[in-house]
Specification:
By secondary structure, this protein is an alpha+beta fold. The protein contains ten helices and six strands; from the N terminus they run αββαβαββαβαααααα. Helix 5 packs parallel to helix 6 (270-301) and helix 6 (270-301) packs parallel to helix 7 (315-346). The termini are far apart.
Length: 438
């Protein structure tokens, strides 16, 4: 079962891992993007809030403080709460407003602080963020200093904005004030920090809820995908198994030398029909030349000599074609030689021999052996004819002198014995006496 579903199982694992990695990457970058959005929103809100307070302070300094300075009965100072003839300094006014502003529950907090506080606030200790913000913004006056921190169990985005000396009246006021902690202020100096603390627990909770929803949706989608892929992979596995069985049958048939076996493409699924066609094409490319070779060899074994192959093949099949054509030529040439020899011998031409031109190897050896056979027959016959010719010419003492074997030796001995037993000398004496009248 596992063997058959191995590809499907790998498919499920691969897609699951890829999906989980993709979801994890999306969640990771979504979280980073969410944090960036919260930070960007906090900075925008901080600039908006600080801008409003600065606008209020500017209006206060121009339209109220300016008028009070012209009234000798009124003063501008820090401890104004219990003095009906004193109004707060612009910075003190902002500080007092921030105190009221910060009393609202779950709202932004505005803080105003400096490393050069007036005496009434010199006992306030700055926390690490505030100290770091002052150092950073004194060196980078056009920047903001932002951090996410947990304060008293709540998460805040703390945004520190530089509060610079931007008006000569402010510079003069701070330098001339009797309680000033620093009397050499100049335009552009960092007077203090305006910090906005924005609570982001709700945003974090909302983002976490969105992230959890995304996770659950992803799990649901993954589950659906896995279920679909499970059934798809089962179908794919069955199709693969079916194709594997069909190809296996072809392999078995070919191993049993059944070269006519082919894959039934109609029994394969659509995705594997091309595979079946390609397997059949491979089998045909192998079996067609072998079938031609089998037929030609079968014809040769029956005494039917086929024409040479003219089809174009490649690789080893081309070498087989060349070898088969060479065998056909040698057999044809040898058979033609045999036919010619038989005709010549039938016509009494005992001097004929098989031609060795173009023959190689054992074909040449067979022709040479045939020539030797003809010579072994031709020698005794020629000597017998010569002996008889000599007898016909009056040489009655002739004999066959050749060194023959077997039946040829018997023929030689018989002819010689016949010649020896014939009374040629006695017949000659009688004929001679009769001629003299005796």
């Amino acid at each position: 079962m596992f063997k058959n579903t191995k590809i499907g199982f790998k498919l499920l694992v691969t897609i699951s891992v890829t999906f989980l990695i993709g979801v994890s990457v999306i969640i990771y970058f979504s979280t980073i993007n969410s944090q960036r959005e919260m930070k960007s929103t906090a900075v925008e809100n901080a600039y908006s809030t600080v801008g409003k307070f600065k606008a209020l302070r500017g209006y206060y300094a121009r339209n109220i403080v300016g008028k009070v300075k012209k009234n000798p009965d009124m003063k501008i100072g820090i401890n104004h709460q219990d003095n009906p003839n004193m109004i707060p300094l612009p910075a003190t006014m902002i500080y007092d407003l921030s105190e009221l502003f910060n009393q609202q529950e779950n709202a932004e907090k505005l803080l105003l602080y400096s490393d050069y506080p007036f005496p009434n606030r010199e006992d306030r200790e700055l926390d690490p963020f505030q100290k770091e913000a002052i150092d950073f913004l004194r060196a980078n006056k056009d920047s903001t200093f932002v951090k996410e921190e947990v304060i008293e169990g709540k998460t805040f985005m703390r945004v520190a904005v530089p509060d610079l000396m931007v008006a000569q009246g402010c510079v003069s006021c701070h330098n001339d004030h009797p309680q000033t902690p620093k009397n050499d202020w100049a335009m552009g100096d960092l007077r203090g920090i305006l910090e906005i603390q924005s609570p982001i627990d709700k945003q974090i909770a909302a983002n976490n809820a969105i992230m959890m929803n995304n996770i659950w949706v992803s799990i649901l989608v993954l589950t659906v995908i896995l279920i679909v892929l499970f059934f798809v992979s089962r179908g794919v596995s069955k199709s693969i198994k079916n194709a594997e069985d069909k190809v296996g049958e072809i392999a078995t048939d070919i191993s049993n030398y059944n070269l006519g076996s082919r894959v039934d493409v109609d029994d394969l699924s659509v995705d594997f029909k091309d595979l079946g066609k390609n397997v059949n094409k491979i089998v045909e490319n192998f079996t067609l030349p072998l079938e031609i070779l089998r037929k030609n060899i079968s014809d040769i074994s029956k005494g039917n000599f086929p024409d040479e192959l003219e089809a174009d093949y490649k690789g080893d099949f081309e070498e087989i074609k060349i070898a088969l054509n060479s065998m056909i030529r040698n057999i044809t040439r040898f058979v033609n030689q045999m036919s010619s020899l038989a005709g010549n011998i039938e016509d009494g031409d005992l001097e004929t021999n098989a031609k060795l031109d173009g023959l190689k190897g054992q074909w040449k050896e067979m022709a040479e052996s045939l020539n030797n056979i003809i010579s072994s027959y031709n020698g005794p016959i020629k000597e017998t004819v010569a002996a008889l010719d000599r007898m016909a010419g009056g040489d009655l003492s002739t004999k066959m002198e050749g060194d023959f074997k077997g039946d040829h030796a018997k023929l030689k001995n018989a002819i010689n014995s016949t010649l020896e037993q014939m009374p040629f000398e006695e017949a000659s004496s009688v004929i001679a006496a009769m001629a003299e009248g005796d």
